[in-house]
Amino acid sequence: MVSYTGLFGKTSVSSILSNFSLTNVEITGVYATGAVVGENGGIIKNITVKGNVYSKEDSKGRRQKQ
Prior knowledge:
This protein is mostly beta strands. The chain has strands spanning 8-10, 16-29, 37-39, 43-55. The strands form two sheets. A two-stranded parallel ribbon has the order 1-3.
């Protein structure tokens, strides 16, 4: 298992992820694990995710600030 796990491992403050959906997600990581981003520094909006995320620590399933 790895850290910073997701469709994108890490994003910077200048990143914008928007307007897509992920289905049948199965993600497993150790630290900073999320379906979309393991560690987000930018903006995430209008994204839907269906599936499962498993993490030993610091799982990111909550809504990020916009």
